[in-house]
Amino acid sequence: MVKTVIGTSRKADALQAVQEATSRFGKPILLIFTVEFKYFEDTVKYLNERFPGVPSIGTSGETFANGVDHNKHLVITSFEGGVEAVTGVVEDISRAPLKSVRALQENVRKIGAGSDNTVLIEFTTGYEEQVITTIQSVLEGTRIGLIGGTTFNFEDSAESEVAVDGKIYKDACAYVLIKNTAGKIRTYRENIYEKGDHSTHIATKVNREKRELIELDGRPAADVYCASTRVSRAQVTATTFDHPFGRCVADEIFITSIRSCENNGTLGLFKQVNENDAVTIMNISDDVIATNGGTREKIKNEVGHASYMFSVDCAFRYLLMTDRKLFADYIGGMKQVADNHMGYVAGGEQFRNQHTNQTMVCAVFE
Question: Measured between alpha carbons, how far is 194 from 180 in angstroms, rounded to an integer?
Fold first, then answer.
């Protein structure tokens, strides 16, 4: 059984917050933490001083834990038994992430993953497709699961940062390989959208580097989207909460959010779409909480009552559920899955070999 302690603090002073949040900790094996951006650097410093030599990863943003929305306050999971952990970083992700492959290979060797007992959890500052390609070039064939989130601060002026073992990085992906020494770790993905009766379209013109969808079926992408959803171009970005794109990958659908609608009919996206990709305009589930109940029931059937769960929720899901007064019921249900649960609100989600949007992903420890 994995032993964890979750510590929290709402104190505005970073040192006092670290002291309060860690007051119940014993001898941590690994720390995973999030905090408001303006306290991030001080929190990294004080946490490293409090637990020198203890592996850790962290970032800034919104977090909830054990049924409570902690907003941007400090939340820390201390792993104190039943796991082994190795931390690392993929640097220079915008230009040369592959230079970190050798170190990742060595970390995978160190963790000595068995069958379905190891997961890689990551926080990335962006460039998700490059990060996933880099990491999966090492993980492929290992049966190591992967979940992660893109840093999201709700502050446009804040430059994203992550921390590994007391050191802060920009343009980087912080990761930890965690092995459950007495059980399995399973990963799950929850999609609250359905295909409905919308047609499938082909992306006939894109700009991958800028994440732009220019044409669908040879027509301006915005025109196709507006005709299908019966909204004006001015309403497109707001409509993505109910009707995002779904990109078909084999027999699975991964959600793509709309970032902007340009005057020429181009749609800016939060995820790359490739030329000739099949995409569908999705409908939101009639009952989001019931959909989550199905996910929780699946976990219960496969795992039983878990010892720990770490989840990543898209910021758009968070905004949608808070706006529709669903979030308290949602996190209350998630609390029932495991002895301890920590959830991060991200700007994008990573699951196995895919980057996605408007999705929940999680790692569940037996």
Answer: 34
What tokens were used for 53?
């030599």
191, 255 Cβ separation under 8 angstroms: yes
Contact 87, 57 (CB under 8 A): yes
Amino acid at 87: T
Q: How far is 258 from 270, CA to CA, in rounded Å?
A: 6
CA 318 to each of CA 23, 64, 75, 298, 325: distance values in angstroms, whole numbers, following the listed order = 29, 11, 17, 22, 10
Using CA atoms, how far apart are residues 67 and 332, in angstroms rounded to an integer?
5
Give the integer Cα–Cα distance in Å for 257 and 280: 12
Q: What does the alpha-carbon distance between residue 20 and residue 7 come to, in Å, rounded to a whole number? A: 8
User: What is the pLDDT confidence band of residue 157, given thresholds at 50, 70 and 90?
Assistant: low
- Maximum distance among all alpha carbons in the chain? 61
In tens, the pLDDT along 7-64 reads 999 999 999 999 999 999 999 999 999 999 999 999 999 999 999 999 999 999 999 9
- Least Cα distance to 135 among 126, 146, 151, 143 occurs for 146
Residue located via tokens 């952990």: 85
List pLDDT tens digits, range 315-363: 999 999 999 999 999 999 999 999 999 999 999 999 999 999 999 999 9
